[in-house]
Amino acid sequence: IDAPTIRVVVHVATVRKMRQYGQESGRAGRDGVASEAIVMRECRETRVRQVFGAFGKDVEEEVQTLIGGSGCMR
After folding, report:
1. Are 14 and 20 a contacting pair, CB within 8 Å?
2. InterPro entries this protein is in (predicted)?
3. What are the residue boundaries of the structural domains of the chain, listed by start?
């Protein structure tokens, strides 16, 4: 998609690869105006992490660091 006026990209499922996240979140702000990329996690997903202490093995470590927090990651 080459639509320069996209301001927000929302990920509604766990991002598994940093390259995937970079490609998808990079769709916002192509015209140089401030934009956001938001990762939404399911409550169930967060609860599984609390119980088992880890993401699935298919989630890259860099992505775990990025989405493992609870606040803004800028």
Report:
1. no
2. P-loop_NTPase (IPR027417)
3. 8-64
